[in-house]
Structure formats: C-alpha cells, structure tokens
Amino acid sequence: MLLNIQHISKTFSTELVLEDISLTLKEKHTLSILGKSGCGKSTLLKIIAGLVLQDNGHILLNGKNINILPANLRHIIYMSQEPLLFPHLNVFENIAFGLRIKKEKKPIIEEKVHQLLVSLGLQSHQKKMPHQLSGGQKQRVNFGRSLILNPPLLLLDEPFGNLDTQTRAEMQQLFKKVSGEFNIASIFVTHDIKEALLMGDVIGYMNAGQLIIYDNKKSFIADSITGAQQEITFWQNL
Amino acid sequence: MKHLKHPIAIFAFLAFTMPYVLLFVLSIANVWNFPQLLPSGYSTKRWSGLSENTGGLLQSLQLSCMIGLIVATFSTITGFAISRSISLHSKRKYLLFACYFPLALSPVIYSLLLNHFFILFNLSGTFIGIVIAQLIITIPFGILLLSSLWNENMRSLEQVSATLGSNLRQTFFRVLLPVALPQLLVCFFQIFLISWFEYGLTTIIGVGKVQTLTLKVYQYIGEANIFYAALSSCILIFPPAIFLWLNKRFVFSKFN
C-alpha cells in the first residue's frame, strides 16, 4: 500500500474540520474525493502534503510514518486550483524548478524538460512568462512542474475548477494520459460528480469533515448523499 | 517630444522642466540683476570649483550619498524581514498599526522628543546618530510598504516551493526574493529619497555638524546666495534623477 492514513483529525479554533479520517491508496491508483466547498477536502490534502499539521492520527507513505517530516522531504506534490506558477520564471524554468532544487546536471534537466514540454504540447511556449499563458496552458505547466519530479503521490485540489468546459475536458484526458505514463498515484479532489467518476479508480465522498470510501463506482452512484443518482436522472429526463 | 501636441501637455512639460532649466542657468550665471531678462554673463567657475570642494559641496554630496544608501539598504532589508515576521504574528494588525506612530509625527517634533537620548548616548552631531535617527522613521516605513507582499498568493507560492522540494533557504532565494524584487527596489528608492531630502531631523540631531547636501541648500538660501543655492540644488537633484532613470529603465520596464 502506497498511502495509509489513520484516524486523522483537525480542528481550527473551535471548528472540527476533519473527523477521524482513514483511507488507503494503492500505487498507480487515483482516489477521487467528491465534496462541497468547505467540507475539509483541501485541509486533508494539505495535511498529507505536510503543509498543515494534523491534531491526531498518522500518515504512512510506503509503510513509513511521515507525520513529522517537513513538506520538502515528503516527495508529495500538492497542486491547488490556481496553477500558481512562479511569476519570475518562464515556462521552461517553471518546469525545471524542482530539478534545479535537486541540483540535477544541466544536460539532464534540459532533456527531461524538453521531453515533458513535448508530452504536454508546450514546446512552442517554453520561453513565455506565466502571464502570457491561458488558464489551460498554465495548468499544463503546473502539471509538468510536478510530473518532472516523478513523485510517488500527487495531490490535486480541484485543479480544473477555474477552466472552461472544453479545456477542462482536455485537461482531464491529459491528466489520465500522463499519470498513466508516469505511473503516479494521486488523490483528486473535486466538487464535480462527473469529474470524480471519470478521474478516480476509487471514489470517496466527503461531508462535514467525514469521509466515506466506496468499494466501487456502482455503490457510489447508489448512495443518495453523493447526488450522482439525481444527476443521472436529470440528464435522462432532459 | 512628438507626443507634446496638446497645449495642456506642453504647459505641463514646461511646468516640470523649466524649474530645472532655471536652476542650471542660475548655477552658471555671473550676475543676474532685476529687471534683466537673462544673466549678464555666464561662467562654469562654480561647477569647476566642485572638484576643489569649494564650500564643502563635494563632501556634502558624499555624505548625503552614504547616509542615503546606508539608510535605504538597511531599512529595505529589515523592513522585508520584519514585515514577514509580522505577517505570521497573531497580533499583526496591532503591530502594523504601531508602525504608523513614528510616521504620524512631524520629523522635527519627533527629533526634538528623541534629542535627549541622542545627547545622552553621545550620538548627537555624529554621522551614526543621523543614520540611527533616520532609521527610526524609515524602518517602520519599509515595514508598512512591504507588508502588502505577504498575502495569500505569496503564502501559496511558498507552499508550492516547499512541496517541490525546497528548504526554507532555497524558497527564500529562489522564490520569495525574486518575486518581491520589484517592490524591494521601489521601497529602496522611496527610502533613499526620504533620507536624501531629510532636513528637520538632520538639523536637530546633527546640530549643524553633519552637513548634508539638503542642509547646504538651506544654508545658501539663508545666506541669500542664490547662485550657490542653485548649484547645490542641481547636485541635489542629480542622484534621485539617476535612480528614477534606473527604476524606469530596469525595474518597471522589466516587471510590467
């Protein structure tokens, strides 16, 4: 098992944000978590990434407890809804950022970045600055910046939330393709039912700090609290 | 000049440039008596006298440059570090409010209130005393100017950098500093100008012993020596003009 989360809880002031969360994730699998805004999805991802400290519980990555490990040593990459590219670096340098931090050799960096630029269809944009890119292109660069490090786990916090429908569909396909190519496990958080079903090998539903993991997509659809059944009925009745 | 077609634009251009022209003409004029439209003769003797440090102008220029650069550099660096610490503090609202106090008072009143301590510590009338006195005003100014840097976006960039493997030092040098650079340069320039044109505080704490260029200008005006006042004003304008040009050429053009 790649990731094993045991009884995580988190309270901000007096508000209980996460309540006894436990989950497991296999290698190369994607867990999509559906939930409304403010249900604690982002907090859960930030705790896994090491950006927020949990009150209770343990996080095991490849069987090793990473509770006290700082974010930069966890090798888990958190991607937020906003692409948040480094504004002072061009596309090439944004993608190369993690490798430069790791002090990789220059020819290796150039080779890996070029390979990714081709995979992501960004060859012609490598010299552009972030403000010269569209929302979809920025998110591609964001992917590239994460994938180049080949992390064992990628945490995606509604990464396509700000994109238009067509770009969103393209990005979903792209994510499926590249995460398959790079054999990366991921937790994909969204408030879109279709996206949750499309992206996840395993699906969870989060509400008021509690998480339910479903055995399969059928049981997810069958559970009325997820809203999946109502969505299907809506489209059938059109 | 090709944009100056509108009469208002021409008027504005002349209103901004003519005082500089007048200052320069005065600095090279031999005699200019009323009601003559132009000076009766011109000479570069005052400008050439600069190299011989006539009237101590060159010394004052060096002194002002040193004070300005030290104050601006120190205030920008400390403002950057302290504003970051304040942004993470639970009482940041009150701490930022406290930064307004040194700026709310007139520098003259402020220096009068502090003068006793400067005399007590033998700092009155010294170079270091002037620097410390100016820093008391410019550090809070730097903190206030740079506090807007530490917003949610900057925090998120720090988090992204951390998850990509950067330690605190790498995040600082590879992300925070380059992202903050335009604002740091603006802060440096603003503080340099505050220090450069500072008069009241320098007069009281310096007790006339530390003769900055601004003090020299006032001294010549007080002596009704308009020609030397014009010469020192020309020199006074020169470093800020260079900074303005550098800012426009390398800062704004690069980051806009």
Secondary-structure blueprint of this entry?
The complex is a heterodimer of chains A (238) and B (256).
Chain A (H helix, E strand, L loop, with lengths): L2 E10 L2 E11 L4 E6 L5 H9 L6 E6 L2 E2 L10 E4 L11 H11 L4 H14 L15 H13 L5 E5 L7 H17 L3 E6 L2 H7 L2 E6 L2 E4 L3 H6 L5 H9 L2
Parallel strand pairs in A: 3-8, 3-9, 6-7, 7-8
Antiparallel strand pairs in A: 1-2, 1-4, 4-5, 9-10
Chain B lengths: L6 H22 L16 H4 L8 H31 L4 H7 L2 H4 L2 H14 L6 H20 L5 H12 L4 H29 L3 H7 L6 H10 L3 H30 L1
Helix pairs in contact in B: 1-12, 3-7, 3-9, 6-10, 7-9, 7-10, 8-9, 9-12, 11-12
Structure report:
- Chain A is α/β, with parallel strands linked by helices and 238 residues long.
- Chain A contains 8 helices and 10 strands.
- Chain B is mostly helical and 256 residues long.
- Helices cover 74% and strands 0% of the residues of chain B.
- Classes of the chains: A alpha/beta (238), B mainly alpha (256).
- Chain A binds chain B through residues 46, 49-51, 70-78, 80, 82, 84, 86-88, 97-98, 100-102, 145-146, 149, and chain B through 153, 156-157, 159-167, 170, 174-175, 178-179, 181.
Task: Spell out the key features of this protein.
heterodimer; A: 238 residues; alpha/beta; Rossmann fold; six-stranded mixed β-sheet; four-stranded antiparallel β-sheet; 10 strands; B: 256 residues; mainly alpha; MetI-like fold; globular
Q: In terms of per-residue confidence, which ranges of chain A show pLDDT below 50 for 5 or more consecutive residues?
A: none
| Name of the CATH superfamily of chain B | MetI-like
Percent helix of chain B, as a range, is over 70%
Largest sheet of chain B: none
Strands ordered across the widest β-sheet of chain A: 6-7-8-3-9-10
Give the overall silhouette of chain B: globular
Structural class of chain B: mainly alpha
CATH superfamily caption of chain A: P-loop containing nucleotide triphosphate hydrolases
Low-pLDDT parts of chain B are none
Q: How many DSSP helices of chain A?
A: 8
Secondary structure: helix percent of chain A:
25-40%
Overall structural domain count of chain B: 1
